[in-house]
Amino acid sequence: MPIQPLFVIIVIIVCVIIGLSKGGLGAALVVLCVPLLSLVMPVQQAISMTLPLLIFADLFALAAFWQRWDMHYIKLLLPPAIVGILVGTYLLANLDDLALRRVVGLFVLMFVIYKVVIEPRLLNVVYTPRNWHGTLTGVVSGFGSALANVGGPPFTIYMLFQQELTPIAFAGTATLFFAIVNVLKLPPLIVAQKFDLNDLTSVLWALPVIPLSVYIGRRVVNRLNRKRFDQMMLALLTFNAVFLLTVPPS
């Protein structure tokens, strides 16, 4: 891929977003990565290029939350997540770019609706646990993560209802779960011939941006106006969703 100025700018922004998300500003930021990269490349390529950046960033997140996770939920959610990953990768490999743009745009729009409409009401929901809830959560999280890096909302909804979890255990469990999911997404992409090492080498120069952004995220996480920050993020997500749904690939 020829290195163009717009490509360089967007890759840097994506690396900053990934680093800030791992530094404490929230996994919701990662949803922006594929839509942003899709401005300068096909969606399939954007998804495969984002994955090694996420795996690299996960190393820093795992170090921060080392052994702060609850293995019960990892063992519960991971097997069905593998099923979701396989289904998501199959669709990724078989849909053309226009269809993928529509699917990713729809997923991003659903994420915005979740943040605006569903999440504020979760604390008022009376939850009755069922065995199949964990299975469904794993499948949907794996599917969403494989197809558009939007596996966070179903995972978050399920985990918020597990009242015995402390905030640090919640964060640690989410970190380990998605770190494993990201690694598990790689083999199916390679088998489907949707992972190109040339894409990886074209962004290696930007990797140092990620740990720097993790550090910045840790420093500023408690100083931000969180409400204003979330509003800006949701506005950008909405713009990206509409762009993907309405503008055909060039």
Write the layout of secondary structure elements.
Elements: H1 5-25, H2 33-37, H3 43-64, H4 71-94, H5 97-118, H6 131-148, H7 152-160, H8 167-191, H9 197-201, H10 209-220, H11 226-246
Structure characteristics:
mainly alpha, single chain, 250 residues, 74% helix
Number of domains: 1
- Judged by helices, strands and strand pairing, the structural class is mainly alpha
Distance between the first and last residues' Cα: 16 Å
Q: Kindly provide the radius of gyration, computed on alpha-carbon positions and rounded to a whole number of angstroms.
A: 17 Å
Outline: globular
Binned, the helix content reads over 70%
Characterize the biggest β-sheet. none
Low-confidence stretches: none
- Let me know the number of strands: 0
Task: Name the helix and strand elements from N-terminus to C-terminus, one letter apiece.
Answer: HHHHHHHHHHH
Strand coverage percent: under 5%
> What's the mean pLDDT score?
83
Helix count, per DSSP?
A: 11
